[in-house]
Design goal:
The protein is an alpha+beta fold. It has a single domain, classed as Aminopeptidase (3-Layer(aba) Sandwich). 22% of the residues lie in helices and 27% in strands. It contains seven helices and nine strands, in the order βααββαβαβααβαβββ. Strands 1, 2, 3, 4, 5, 6, 7, 8 and 9 form a nine-stranded mixed β-sheet that branches. α4 links the parallel β4 and β5. The protein is globular, with a radius of gyration of 19 Å.
Length: 259
């Protein structure tokens, strides 16, 4: 990991949006097709610049990005984190923004790292930066619909089983869940339909290079569970489960020393 790495939010350094734009192909093509994402990403720099973190090495070499979103939680019907996880919290945030509802919590949405810099401990660095930014913004709780990083190796294993596996030291067996746990997070529950990505047969053939010529479940590289295909009805639907985790964010200590 480079000692020169700098992480800044866009509200402090709006010019870094040009640096962020240099990062491409961070996710498989099908993962970029969730229609709910359009409620957040196209206007994130305008609506939520304080929730966009850019990691770079001087002068302007992009390394990683992180996104969060503020939302209201704990009143009315919102007494539990949504089963539709990532999609659900983006919709909640969009509703709150339209209604002028003050947010009470922050949800992580994404931490993405340049492919050649993965495996260098940067995920923990970006999560720590996310913690600090949430603290800076005055919130005391960060939640995250976490996408377990090794689940794609076991697409047929239920997430309700996979998410709760632990190592002998008690930490989660999955690497990305373990990074969150080491940062103080606890598992709240599984979000069984966290991301829903629909498309036609032609769409999914284009996104994956797979034939999609038979109805039934299709194992797609990097998908956490099988993708559902109906040749007869010309549709393919991916319903991805995630894992809700909660981070308590301690406020900055108050300096009570006298002058």
């Amino acid at each position: 990991m480079s000692e020169n790495l700098i992480v800044e939010p866009l509200d402090r350094r709006p010019e870094l949006s040009a640096v962020a734009d240099k990062l491409e192909h961070l996710w498989p093509p099908f993962m970029q097709q969730d229609p709910t994402a359009n409620l957040y990403y196209p206007d994130a720099e305008r609506n939520h610049p304080e929730h966009v973190l850019v990691a770079y090495e001087p002068p302007d070499v992009p390394v990683a990005l992180a996104y969060t979103v503020p939302f209201a939680f704990g009143t009315g019907p919102r007494t539990e984190l949504p089963d539709d996880g990532w999609d659900g919290v983006i919709r909640w945030a969009a509703q709150d923004r339209d209604r002028g509802t003050a947010p009470t919590h922050v949800s992580a949405l994404e931490i993405s790292i340049r492919p050649d810099r993965r495996g260098q401990g940067l995920a923990a660095v970006m999560l720590a930066a996310m913690h600090e930014n949430v603290r800076r913004l005055g919130f005391t709780e960060l939640v995250a619909p976490v996408r377990p990083s090794a689940k794609h190796q076991e697409p047929h294993t239920p997430m309700s089983e996979y998410a709760y596996r632990t190592r002998p030291d008690g930490l989660p067996a999955d690497p990305w869940l373990r990074v969150h746990a080491r940062a103080g997070a606890e598992i709240v529950k599984v979000a069984p339909r966290s991301m829903v990505i629909p498309g036609t047969l032609a769409d999914w053939r284009r996104w994956t290079g797979l034939p999609f010529d038979r109805s039934g479940d299709v194992v797609v590289p990097n998908a956490l569970v099988p993708v559902h295909c109906s040749v007869e009805h010309d549709h393919v639907v991916y319903v991805e489960p995630n894992v809700w985790m909660r981070h308590a964010i301690a406020p900055h200590p108050v300096n009570t020393a006298s002058a």
